[in-house]
Amino acid sequence: MVTQRKVAAAGVLALALAAGAAGCTLPGASYAGPRPSRSATGAGGPSGTASLGGTASPGGTASPAPTPGDAAADSGRVTLAFAGDVNFANRTARLLRDPATAFGPIASVLRSADFTALNLETAITSRGTPQPKTYHFRTTPGAFTALRDAGVDLVTMANNHVLDYGRTGLADALTAARAARFPYVGIGRDAAAAWAPYLVTINGMRIAIIGVSQVTELAPSWVATRTRSGEANAINVRRTLGAVRAAKRRARVVIVFMHWGTEGMACPDQAQLSLAPRLAAAGASIIIGAHAHMLQGSGWLGHTFVAYGMGNFLWWEHSYSTATGVLKLTLRPHAPLTARFIPAVVSGTGRPIPDRGAAARRAAARYARLRACTGLTRRPA
């Protein structure tokens, strides 16, 4: 989220990643003035486009231009922030009583980026039939208010809980997102909508975001098709790779937000390791993952930056790990892409609380060591 404030986070792990290859050093600039309008054709859904920095997307409205001489704009930076799994059940449901404070102090970290995305892992409905599975999550449309107030710009909803209450629940989620004018990816009324990218231009840099699940539980009945609603799921790998290729034709930067991995595992599983190179070859610039309830390592797969798993972020119960954080990727026009991991811990309220001091340094070091089992490198190949 665009903001005047800069966040000085203690214990930030700075990963200087030499780029120098196409898709690694990317042109663009951030806008540090008031948050611009995001209204566009299909706003709130994957077909919508949005624009920052004084340009207008097709079907959208023009956004304010940066103030001349603005330091952030002059620096030519675009900062993206990513976090993991969020839902509002049990202890985190109580946080929606005051949506403006639901995310607590880490909201300032989310707001400090030009564009922030995470995984919203829940149905949004009071109706529907529980599906034949162990865990069922649902919440109210107030979740979108909390997300917006925290500085989140987009959610992926391609995951193993969005259809917990069937297609009735999914229809309610789509309606709620449109009513809130809140951007999402990964679900839709049919396959074309579920795999469609969200497009945003930030000071001249065109970015496409796609959301896809790789979770196989109930995937044959949950996946969107030509004639039914559902989620984008990699069970249809042809459409998944085709969506990445199509997005690459429309945007310089293509981000694929995957829901994948084995729960409780800090290393990527074989399915992740097999799909990631195919996504990269199809044109993914950045791959972000969630689902394992654990942080997983990040680094370079050729010229594609991969963060295999962002862990739980705002979470309903004690799980495999309370370690979490925000991953910030900073793009500069004539310098390397850099990544910073801002460590946090999921507290007893379910909120993520930024680590400080020695705890932050230890958490940052642990995160850096997670790369060892990923096959990723510190620098692009």
Describe the protein in words.
There is one protein chain. This protein is α/β, with parallel strands linked by helices and 381 residues long. The chain has helices spanning 71-75, 107-111, 142-150, 166-180, 191-194, 219-222, 237-250, 270-282, 357-369; strands spanning 13-16, 49-52, 78-86, 115-120, 123-124, 138-139, 154-156, 184-185, 187-188, 198-202, 205-213, 230-231, 253-259, 286-290, 295-301, 304-310, 312-314, 323-331, 338-346, 352-354. The protein has a single domain, classed as 4-Layer Sandwich (Purple Acid Phosphatase, chain A, domain 2), CATH 3.60.21. The protein is built from nine helices and 20 strands. The protein is globular.
Brief summary of the model shown:
With 381 residues, this protein is α/β, with parallel strands linked by helices. Helix content is 22%, strand content 26%.
Mean pLDDT: 84
- CATH topology name, in short, is Purple Acid Phosphatase, chain A, domain 2
CATH class equals Alpha Beta
- Unreliable residue stretches: 2-44, 46-72
The CATH homologous superfamily: Metallo-dependent phosphatases
Please outline the helices and strands.
Blueprint: E1 13-16, E2 49-52, H1 71-75, E3 78-86, H2 107-111, E4 115-120, E5 123-124, E6 138-139, H3 142-150, E7 154-156, H4 166-180, E8 184-185, E9 187-188, H5 191-194, E10 198-202, E11 205-213, H6 219-222, E12 230-231, H7 237-250, E13 253-259, H8 270-282, E14 286-290, E15 295-301, E16 304-310, E17 312-314, E18 323-331, E19 338-346, E20 352-354, H9 357-369
Parallel strand pairs: 2-10, 3-4, 3-17, 4-7, 5-6, 7-8, 11-13, 13-14, 14-16
Antiparallel strand pairs: 1-19, 3-18, 9-12, 10-11, 15-16, 18-19, 19-20
